[in-house]
C-alpha cells in the first residue's frame, strides 16, 4: 500500500519494465517445464552443480561464491549477492552446435532470480522467479543460429534484493563438443513423506529432497493428481472427514522413480469455510490511513458506510523480531486521541463492521522467519486486539514472507482469538502467480481460517492469467484472468476479492474506473460484462473488492465506494 502521494512502491517499480519484458519473452517457461531431453542429448554445461567451486563460471564484482547450504543436489550451490548497481550475474560460455535446440534449466532459491542465455544467433531467452523459500526449477528452450558454436548462459539476482542460490544448472541438447557434466540417472524414490496439515477440503504433504530430481509427482490412491518442483504440495477439492492415501515419485530427464511409501491424510470436519465471523456474503474492504499524505484525513467514525472491513494501516515493527505495535498518529490526524479511536472502533463494530490491524505496507519491515518471531508476532497482534478492540489482522507484507513461519504465526493467533478472527491478505500480483509462491502457499495453508485475499491489481507489470496469456494492468481482463489463478488454485470464491486504488492519487499506476471494477465482478460472479477473457465457470460467492484507501476515496468524493460498494452488496 502507498503511504506517499503518487510515489511508486520500491522495489516493484524498479523492475516493472524489466518484468513485463521477461514475462512476455518467457510465457512458456513459466507455465510449465520444457519437455524431457532426447536420448542423444547431453548436458553441455560444465560444473553446473558447483561441486568444483566457481570453476568455469565468472561472476560480476566478486558477487558469487559457493556454499554448502542450502543445496539442491550434491554438496555445493552458488550464492549470488546483489549489491549496489550489481545484480550478481554469473556466466559460463557453453559450446553448442549450430541450428540446434537446447533446454536450459536450473534450480533456484532465495531472492529474485533470473536464468537466461545470450549469443544464440536467434532469439535470446530468459526466465525468472520471485523470492522463494524453497528450491524451484526454471527452464526454457533456445535455438542456435546457423553459425553459432558458443552461447553464454547466466544467472543473476536483482538490485537491492536478497541473495539468490542456484544449483544443478544444465544445457541439454546436441553435443557441442566442449564437454559437460554427465547425464542424470533415474532418481531414487522419495523418502520422508508426511502429512504436514489438513483442512476440511485439503491435505498438505511434504517429503525429503531427492538427489538428481528435477520434479515430483503426487499420487492420490494410485492416480497422479499433481506435479511440483518443490518438496511439498497441497491436494485440494477433497471431501470433509474423509481419509485419502498419497504417494510421491521423483522425476528428471532420465525418467520417473518408483513410488514412495504411502501415507494417509484425513480431512477435518467442514466448518463452512474460512474465518470471517458475521461478515456479509459480499464484502468491501478499505484501508484507513494512520498518517496524512495529502488524502482526506479521517477518524474511524468518518469511514464510509459501504466498507465492511476497515484495515488500519499500519502496525509498526519493534526491536523484538516478529513483534509489532501500534502508534496512533494523533498529531497528523488533527489531535485524534486513543480513547476516541477505541470508541470509534466499537461504534463501527456495533454497526456490523470489522476493524483489523494491517501489518506491512510499502515500508513494512516486519519479518517472521523462525518459530520465535512467529510466536512474538502472534502474541503482539493478539495484545493489540485486546488493547484496541481489533477484530483481526491484515497481512500486507510487500517484501516477501516465509510461508512456514507465517502459517505458524497465524494459526497461533487463531488459537488465541477463536473462530471470530478476521484474517485478510493483500499480496501483490507477482505473489499470486503460482501456488508455489510463498504468499499463495500461506493462503492455502490457512484456508480454513482465512477470510479473504484482496490482491493488489495495481503498481504491477504485465502478468500471466490462468489461461497462460499475458495481460497488462488497467483492464477488465487483467482483473478477471488473474483472479482466476486464485480461484483455480485452491482458494474458495468467498476468499477472493479485487483490490484497486480509489483514485489516480492512490497508486503509482493501475487505477481503473469503478465501472471496470464492477464489470470484472460481474464477469467472475455472473459471467456477464467480460472482456476478451471469460472464465470457464462463474463464482457467485466471490467475496467482493478492496481499495486503497478510504481516505483517497473521500478525497475523490466517495466515487469508488458509492459505485463499487453498492455493486458488491447487490451481487446477491
TrEMBL record:
Enzyme class: hydrolase
Region Disordered, annotated ranges: 257-277
Protein EC: 3.2.1.14
GO MF entries: chitin binding; endochitinase activity
Residue ranges annotated for the Fibronectin type-III domain, each copy included: 189-271
Pfam family, one: fn3
Stretches assigned to the GH18 domain: 282-572
Alphabetically ordered keywords of this record: Carbohydrate metabolism, Glycosidase, Hydrolase, Polysaccharide degradation, Signal
Family statement drawn from the similarity comment of this UniProt entry: Belongs to the glycosyl hydrolase 18 family. Chitinase class II subfamily.
Protein's recorded name: chitinase
Protein source organism: Streptomyces olivochromogenes
Amino acid at each position: 500500500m502507498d503511504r506517499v502521494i503518487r510515489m511508486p512502491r520500491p522495489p516493484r517499480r524498479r523492475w516493472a519494465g524489466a518484468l513485463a519484458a521477461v514475462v512476455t519473452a518467457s510465457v512458456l517457461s513459466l507455465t510449465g517445464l520444457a519437455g524431457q531431453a532426447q536420448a542423444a542429448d547431453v548436458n553441455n554445461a560444465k560444473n553446473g552443480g558447483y561441486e568444483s567451486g566457481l570453476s568455469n563460471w565468472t561472476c560480476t564484482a566478486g558477487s558469487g561464491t559457493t556454499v554448502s547450504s542450502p543445496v539442491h543436489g550434491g554438496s555445493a550451490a552458488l550464492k549470488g549477492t546483489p549489491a549496489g548497481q550489481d545484480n550478481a550475474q554469473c556466466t559460463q560460455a557453453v559450446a553448442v552446435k549450430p541450428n540446434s535446440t537446447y533446454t536450459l534449466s536450473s534450480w533456484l532459491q532465495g531472492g529474485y532470480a533470473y536464468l537466461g542465455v545470450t549469443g544464440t544467433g536467434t532469439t535470446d531467452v530468459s526466465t525468472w522467479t520471485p523470492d522463494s523459500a524453497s528450491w524451484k526449477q526454471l527452464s526454457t528452450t533456445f535455438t542456435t543460429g546457423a553459425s553459432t558454436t558458443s552461447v553464454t548462459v547466466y544467472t543473476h539476482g536483482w538490485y537491492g534484493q536478497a541473495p539468490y542460490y542456484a544449483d544443478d544448472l544444465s544445457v541439454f541438447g546436441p553435443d557441442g563438443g566442449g564437454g559437460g557434466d554427465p547425464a542424470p540417472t533415474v532418481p531414487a524414490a522419495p523418502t520422508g513423506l508426511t502429512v504436514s496439515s489438513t483442512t476440511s477440503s485439503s491435505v498438505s504433504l511434504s517429503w525429503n529432497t531427492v538427489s538428481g530430481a528435477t520434479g515430483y509427482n503426487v499420487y492420490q490412491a494410485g492416480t497422479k493428481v499433481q506435479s511440483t518442483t518443490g518438496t511439498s504440495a497441497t491436494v485440494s477439492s477433497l471431501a470433509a472427514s474423509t481419509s485419502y492415501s498419497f504417494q510421491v515419485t521423483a522425476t528428471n530427464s532420465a525418467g520417473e522413480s518408483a513410488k514412495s511409501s504411502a501415507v494417509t491424510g484425513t480431512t477435518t470436519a467442514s466448518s463452512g469455510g474460512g474465518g470471517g465471523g458475521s461478515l456479509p456474503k459480499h464484502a468491501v474492504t478499505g484501508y484507513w490511513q494512520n498518517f496524512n499524505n495529502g488524502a482526506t484525513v479521517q477518524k474511524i467514525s468518518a469511514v464510509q458506510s459501504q466498507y465492511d472491513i476497515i484495515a488500519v494501516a499500519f502496525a509498526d515493527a519493534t526491536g523484538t523480531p516478529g513483534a509489532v505495535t501500534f502508534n496512533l498518529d494523533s498529531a497528523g490526524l488533527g489531535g485524534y486521541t486513543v480513547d476516541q479511536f477505541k470508541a470509534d472502533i466499537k461504534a463501527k463494530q456495533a454497526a456490523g463492521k470489522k476493524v483489523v490491524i494491517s501489518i506491512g505496507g510499502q515500508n513494512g519491515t516486519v519479518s517472521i522467519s523462525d518459530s520465535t518471531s512467529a510466536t512474538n508476532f502472534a502474541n503482539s497482534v493478539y495484545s493489540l486486539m485486546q488493547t484496541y478492540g481489533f477484530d483481526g489482522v491484515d497481512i500486507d507484507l510487500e517484501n516477501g514472507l516465509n510461508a512456514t513461519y507465517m502459517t505458524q504465526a497465524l494459526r497461533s493467533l487463531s488459537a488465541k482469538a477463536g473462530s471470530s478472527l478476521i484474517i485478510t491478505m493483500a499480496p501483490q500480483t507477482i505473489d499470486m502467480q503460482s501456488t508455489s509462491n510463498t504468499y499463495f502457499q500461506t493462503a492455502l495453508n490457512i484456508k480454513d481460517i482465512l477470510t479473504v485475499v484482496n490482491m493488489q491489481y495495481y503498481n504491477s507489470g504485465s502478468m500471466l492469467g490462468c489461461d497462460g496469456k499475458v495481460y497488462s494492468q488497467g483492464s477488465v481482463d487483467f482483473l478477471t484472468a488473474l483472479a482466476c489463478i486464485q480461484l483455480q488454485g485452491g482458494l474458495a470464491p468467498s476468499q477472493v476479492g479485487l483490490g484497486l486504488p480509489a483514485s489516480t492519487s492512490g497508486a503509482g499506476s493501475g487505477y481503473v474506473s469503478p465501472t471496470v471494477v464492477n464489470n470484472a465482478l460481474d464477469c467472475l460472479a455472473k459471467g456477464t460484462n467480460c472482456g476478451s477473457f471469460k472464465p470457464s465457470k462463474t463464482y457467485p460467492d466471490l467475496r467482493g473488492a478492496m481499495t486503497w484507501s478510504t481516505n483517497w476515496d473521500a478525497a475523490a468524493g466517495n466515487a469508488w465506494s458509492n459505485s463499487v460498494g453498492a455493486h458488491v452488496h447487490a451481487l446477491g
